[in-house]
């Protein structure tokens, strides 16, 4: 998809989701953000390592429930909500990042309830380490170890696994992550990803870019872009984006 602005992207995503809601006559269905913001332990359990961003406090996991199906979004703008899906579709997801977080979580929950997507709940405990090693295997099979990988978003297990076999660069927007050394890789400032996009053969992009509004920079790059994580589940299906997420529930 070729979007000129974030507003174009979110308008198209909302329209596509609204079409799903209309097809299944769900406008009056209630979608409750269950427990609002999840604690880190509720979100990812007790992983063996302690350097995951959610454990350090800036971003949180927001979870929605629709008919017993859960959808999540990893966001720095969480908010509680209880109402109908129709009310969610009326929210301003362009200018209001809290509304956008609610929309993404609800969209993921609704599409999961309709069996249109899977993997909408974050893996727990050692799931992230296992996912990282599966990522490594899949990327080796598809691209070989000679390719240059640009990773958007510091996911420490993924960085550790990929840096063993690939030439890797990692960008992040959180100032506290910039400059972190992970093996042979130093996390770089992700404010301007143009250098990495020109350098990389393959781009791995966190689905959280959908929530923070930077995703438009990683569409139509001319590179093979693979999104990862639960946040992007519904949008990847609706917009035809590549996604890998191996241990999500």
Structure description:
With 249 residues, this protein is of the alpha/beta class. The chain contains 10 helices and 13 strands. The protein has a 6-stranded parallel β-sheet with strand order 10-7-6-11-12-13. The protein is globular and about 50 Å long. The mean pLDDT is 90.
pLDDT averaged residue by residue = 90
Spatial strand sequence of the major β-sheet: 10-7-6-11-12-13
Radius of gyration: 17 Å
Q: Number of DSSP helices?
A: 10
What's the helix-strand series? Answer: HEEHHEEEHHHEHEEEEHEHEHE
Largest beta-sheet details: 6 strands, parallel
Number of strands: 13
Our estimate of the beta-strand percent is: 15-25%
Helix content: 25-40%
Cα(first) to Cα(last) distance is 28 Å
Shape: globular
Which secondary-structure class do the elements indicate? alpha/beta
Can you tell me the residue ranges where pLDDT is under 50 for at least 5 consecutive residues?
none
Short description:
36% of the residues lie in helices and 20% in strands.
Descriptive key words:
alpha/beta, 6-stranded parallel sheet, 10 helices, globular
Task: Indicate the topology.
Elements: H1 6-23, E1 30-32, E2 37-38, H2 40-44, H3 53-56, E3 60-66, E4 69-75, E5 82-84, H4 85-89, H5 97-113, H6 127-143, E6 148-152, H7 156-162, E7 167-172, E8 181-182, E9 185-186, E10 188-189, H8 194-199, E11 202-206, H9 209-212, E12 224-228, H10 233-239, E13 243-244
Parallel strand pairs: 6-7, 6-11, 7-10, 11-12, 12-13
Antiparallel strand pairs: 1-5, 2-3, 3-4, 8-9
Helix pairs in contact: 6-7
């Amino acid at each position: 998809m070729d979007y000129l602005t974030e507003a174009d992207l979110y308008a198209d995503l909302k329209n596509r989701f609204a079409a799903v809601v209309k097809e299944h006559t769900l406008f009056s269905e209630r979608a409750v953000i269950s427990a609002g913001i999840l604690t880190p332990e509720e979100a990812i359990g007790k992983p063996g390592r302690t350097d995951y961003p959610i454990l350090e406090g800036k971003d949180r996991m927001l979870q929605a429930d629709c008919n017993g199906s859960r959808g999540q979004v990893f966001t720095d703008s969480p908010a509680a909500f209880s109402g109908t899906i129709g009310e969610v579709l009326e929210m301003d997801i362009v200018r209001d990042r809290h509304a956008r977080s609610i929309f993404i979580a609800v969209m993921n929950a609704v599409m999961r309830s309709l069996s249109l997507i899977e993997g909408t709940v974050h893996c727990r405990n050692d799931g992230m380490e296992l996912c990282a090693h599966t990522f490594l295997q899949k990327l080796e099979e598809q691209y070989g170890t000679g390719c240059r990988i640009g990773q958007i978003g510091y996911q420490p297990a993924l960085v550790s696994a990929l840096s063993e076999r690939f030439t890797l660069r990692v960008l992040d927007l959180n100032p506290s992550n910039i400059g972190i050394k992970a093996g042979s890789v130093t996390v770089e400032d992700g404010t301007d990803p143009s250098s990495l996009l020109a350098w990389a053969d393959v781009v791995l992009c966190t689905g959280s870019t959908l929530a923070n509004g930077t995703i438009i920079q990683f569409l139509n790059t001319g590179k093979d872009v693979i999104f990862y994580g639960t946040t992007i589940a519904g949008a990847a299906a609706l917009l035809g984006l590549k996604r890998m997420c191996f241990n999500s529930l």
